[in-house]
Structure formats: C-alpha cells, structure tokens
Design brief:
Bound molecules: protoporphyrin IX containing FE
CATH architecture of the largest domain: Orthogonal Bundle
Strand content: under 5%
CATH class of the largest domain: Mainly Alpha
CATH superfamily of the largest domain: Globins
Radius of gyration: 20 Å
Number of domains: 2
Number of helices: 9
Largest sheet: none
Length: 163
Amino acid sequence: MKLTCNFSIKKIVLSIKTNPFRVQNSERVFKITGKMQDVQTQEDLYKIVDEFYKKLFADERISSIFTEVIPIHEKLEEHLQILVTFWSQAILGTGGYFNNLTQIHLDVNLKSHLSKELFEIWLTHFEAAIDENFKGFNCERMKNMAHNLSTIMQIKIAQQKEQ
Ligand code: HEM
C-alpha cells in the first residue's frame, strides 16, 4: 500500500517536471516543440496584440486611423497593455477592464467613419495574428468574440448615423 502511494507521488512529481506547459509560456513551447499552443497567459495575449498592431500599421487601407485620427503610435505600449487587460478579462477571466468599448469606437467613428470594409480588414489581421502564433479553444473564443463585437459596433454605428 505504502509502495503504491510512493510510486504515484513520484509519477506526479515526474509529470510536473517533464510537462512543459507548467513551466514554459506558450510561445517558448512552440519554439521548442514546433507545436502551436493555445493562448494561456497575458504574455501570449501581448504577443497577439503586438503582432496584430504591426499588421494594422503596415496596411495603408487602415493605418491612418491609428496614426492620424487617433495617434496610437505615440502611446503604443500603453495601448497594447489596455488591449491585454481587455482580452485577459474576456478570455482568462482576470478583471481590470472598465472602459466602454462601444462608446470608444462610436467616438472614433465621429472623427473618421468606420466602414464595413474597415471592420473586415481589422478582423482579417486580428485572425491572422492569432492563427500565425497559437491554436486552440481560447483562440476560437477570441476570434468569435471579435466577430460578435464587430457586429455590435457596426449596428451602433449605423444607429449613430440615423440620429
Ligand atoms: C474598423 C475596425 C476598428 C478600428 C479602426 C478600431 C480602432 C480603434 C482605435 C483608434 C482605438 C483607440 C481609441 C482611443 O484610444 O481613443 C481602439 C481601441 C480599442 N479597440 Fe478598436 N477598432 C476597431 C474594431 C475593434 C473591434 C472589433 C474590437 C473588438 C474586440 C476592438 C477592440 C478595441 C479595444 C479593446 C480597444 C481599447 C479601448 C480602451 O482604450 O479601453 N476594436 N480601436
């Protein structure tokens, strides 16, 4: 009885030592194993929003919103941290995001119209930033949520136009 018990404790300790997910972040596991991991940490989320904004800034169809309408590039690190907090609350269940996301985008829309085409470009880059780096359930949740929020924002923008 004692032997079995000791054996199973050893097995658990061994599995903790050899399980890379317990000690490595997803990006490092990908580099070591070549296998894409799911989004699991705020570091993972930072990687996604960082890659995503590189894509937005590089695409001249949408970049002026982030450089001229709202000059995000001047306070990019601060902005990326806000995005991490937002996605961390939504996907990892942490707290800390209290802003009114729809109102923020309605305010942007008043300065420069956020068209259906711009939302499509935004979503394409967002999905690519996820799919190029991670794979799994949380990735699907993030993409679904972005699509849903995009739809809600576009409905609110259409209502704002009518007023
Ligand atoms: C046409 C598509 C979009 C454009 C051009 C756009 C542009 C922007 C801009 C310029 C800001 C900064 C606003 C400011 O600091 O005053 C912002 C913030 C943000 N956007 Fe978008 N956005 C789009 C769609 C979306 C969608 C679909 C989501 C869904 C997740 C989203 C999530 C966020 C978040 C989380 C912030 C940070 C808000 C905060 O400061 O609290 N955006 N966006």
